[in-house]
Amino acid sequence: MARPLISVICPSYDRPQHVGPLLDSILEQDFDDWECVITDDHSPSREAVRAIFDEYSQKSNGKIRCYVNDENLGYDGAFRRLIQLARGRFVFVMGDDDFVAPGALRAVADAIARYPNLGVILRAFAFFRDTPDNILQVNRYYPAETHFVAGPQAIVACYRRLVGMSGLVLDRDASLALETDRWDGTLFYQHWLAANILVEKDAVYLPTVLAYFRRGGTPLFGRAKAEQGLYTPGVQPPDTDIKMLMSLMAIADAVERERGVRIAELIRRDHGNYMYPTIAHQAHQPWPVFYKFYRDLARLGFGRYPLFHFWFWSVAAIGATRMDRLLQMVRRTVGHTPNISSFARRDLSFRAGTVIPSEARDLALSRNETASGKAVPSPNGPDPSLRSG
């Protein structure tokens, strides 16, 4: 059997009402060189899901392959198993309550043809409520298709934007070669894969909307053994956001240490510059809890960056709802999310004798390290609280 170009992979848990519509969005694509691999992670509704799986496997003439895990592997473990099961050259990752946008797989195939060293595709996406025809917001990172050559800038430009997994595209064989269970329970296995892949392979951002994200879903993490004690199903209190950020920074630290690419401080700064969504997410908390959250984030190293403090005090002063309106107005005006971090801009350039911002200087050094194969200590020193054991 010929190897497909794209494997759409989806880890699913206890959402039988959403699985069918997701699979329909795949069957409706105007591109044929694909397969779909979906797993139910031993959820309470697995028998109902199994019946849906059987229906769509027959409907697709076997192009949709479905599995029910014998035990609850958790998000990271289920993701890893899906990569093992996939046969495509690239995996197109989807959440089980989201939709593949019309024309998405053809857009991905066209990009693969244009970039021979492609490892990761970063995408535009849209939020919807209830049904995909009720679009609330379209998120674009750059005004046009943007190519990042393998190395630190590609990693940093993509890293923060990998949290929402739907529509993310990864080289399957490179992902399989990076297989590990060391990050099980973090919920960020895709960050480990993408950061390592981008040491050697390129990234491209597509302004085409590849996925529709459902707004208002309930988080179901915390049931698997690897996630217990870290996350509580159905809620995301401040300490959960702290744990997530610690995991993200620990993965970045590990990639820097093991691959010799200087990215950790740049990634930490990028997250500090764009901390607004995380801060706004907890803005409903009572003031003492909200202020403690701010102080805890600062202790993780984000307090070094002025924009981090700006976001917190802006939300504290006018509220998250008004800030959302202001930011949406800015996005509509410029057509994409403004790139605050200069090292993640597509037009970044370095000229001899030019004074450049500190983050751009760090990226220039990391580029030289990648070329020479040497690692240079961070000027801010290591952050022990974020190091993986």
What can you tell me about this protein's structure?
- The C terminus is likely disordered.
- It is built from 14 helices and ten strands.
- The termini are far apart.
- The chain folds into two domains: 209 residues, Spore Coat Polysaccharide Biosynthesis Protein SpsA, Chain A (Alpha-Beta Complex); 149 residues, no CATH class.
- Helix 7 runs parallel beside helix 8.
- Helices cover 43% and strands 15% of the residues.
- With 389 residues, the protein is an alpha/beta fold.
- Helix 1 links the parallel strand 1 and strand 2.
- Strands 1, 2, 3, 4, 5, 6, 7, 8, 9 and 10 form a ten-stranded mixed β-sheet that branches.
Report the end-to-end length measured between terminal Cα atoms.
43 Å
Oligomerization category of the chains in this entry: single chain
Q: How many distinct domains? A: 2
Order of helices and strands: EHEHEHEEHEEEHEHHEHHHHHHH
Query: Structural class, please?
Result: alpha/beta
Overall pLDDT, averaged? 87
What's the helix count? 14
Q: What fold name stands as the CATH topology of the largest domain?
A: Spore Coat Polysaccharide Biosynthesis Protein SpsA, Chain A
CATH-assigned homologous superfamily of the largest domain: Spore Coat Polysaccharide Biosynthesis Protein SpsA, Chain A
Classify the helix fraction into a percent range: 40-55%
Strand count:
10
CATH level-two architecture of the largest domain: Alpha-Beta Complex
Computed over alpha carbons, the radius of gyration is 21 Å
Q: What percentage of the residues does DSSP assign to strands (E)?
A: 15-25%
Summarize the biggest pleated sheet: 10 strands, mixed
- Uncertain runs are 347-389
CATH level 1 class label of the largest domain: Alpha Beta
Shape: globular
